């Protein structure tokens, strides 16, 4: 069975680095499935639940704020993101608490820079999307 190397990195650690058969992800342009031999591609990620298939194993992660690079020449996919959490490690309560904190900061935005406001709005969007997926 054909494979490619998938690496998911955050500023703190490498969350995943292994040969895989299939990688499913949402970019800003839509949902995609990456298989061995996929054409070169660069994509932006605000939020995505990703599905990784390797052998008989399926791994699921939640990824926020990142960039996807598919490199056909090197038979690899690299995701650089701010956070990558295994789906089993994410609780509904922790997401709701974080969303409440973001809403509070956005409501009192006078002391925030334009960059901070934009970042928090993107985080808000990503968290709402994540909550929608988790409560389906």
TrEMBL record:
This is ATP synthase epsilon chain. The gene is atpC. InterPro entries: ATP_synth_F1_dsu/esu, ATP_synth_F1_dsu/esu_N, ATPsynth_dsu/esu_N. It comes from the Bacteria. Residues 4-84 form the ATP synthase F1 complex delta/epsilon subunit N-terminal domain. Produces ATP from ADP in the presence of a proton gradient across the membrane. Coiled coil: none annotated. The lineage of its organism: Bacteria, Candidatus Buchananiibacteriota. It holds the Pfam family ATP-synt_DE_N. GO terms for molecular function: ATP binding; proton-transporting ATP synthase activity, rotational mechanism. Belongs to the ATPase epsilon chain family. Its main location: membrane. It is a peripheral membrane protein. F-type ATPases have 2 components, CF(1) - the catalytic core - and CF(0) - the membrane proton channel. CF(1) has five subunits: alpha(3), beta(3), gamma(1), delta(1), epsilon(1). CF(0) has three main subunits: a, b and c. It is found in: Cell membrane; Endomembrane system. It comes from Candidatus Buchananbacteria bacterium CG10_big_fil_rev_8_21_14_0_10_33_19. GO terms for cellular component: endomembrane system; plasma membrane; proton-transporting ATP synthase complex. Keywords: ATP synthesis, Cell membrane, CF(1), Hydrogen ion transport, Ion transport, Membrane, Transport.
């Amino acid at each position: 069975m054909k494979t490619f190397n998938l690496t998911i990195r955050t500023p703190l650690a490498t969350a995943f680095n292994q040969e895989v058969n299939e990688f499913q992800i949402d970019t800003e342009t839509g949902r995609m499935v990456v298989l061995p031999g996929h054409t070169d591609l660069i994509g932006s990620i605000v939020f995505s639940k990703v599905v990784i298939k390797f052998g008989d194993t399926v791994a699921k992660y939640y990824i926020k704020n990142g960039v996807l690079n598919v490199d056909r020449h090197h038979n690899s996919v690299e995701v650089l993101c701010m956070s990558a959490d295994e789906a089993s490690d994410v609780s509904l309560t922790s997401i709701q608490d974080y969303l409440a904190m973001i809403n509070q900061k956005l409501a009192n935005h006078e002391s925030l820079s334009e960059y901070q406001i934009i970042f928090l709005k993107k985080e808000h969007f990503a968290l709402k999307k994540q909550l929608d997926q988790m409560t389906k």
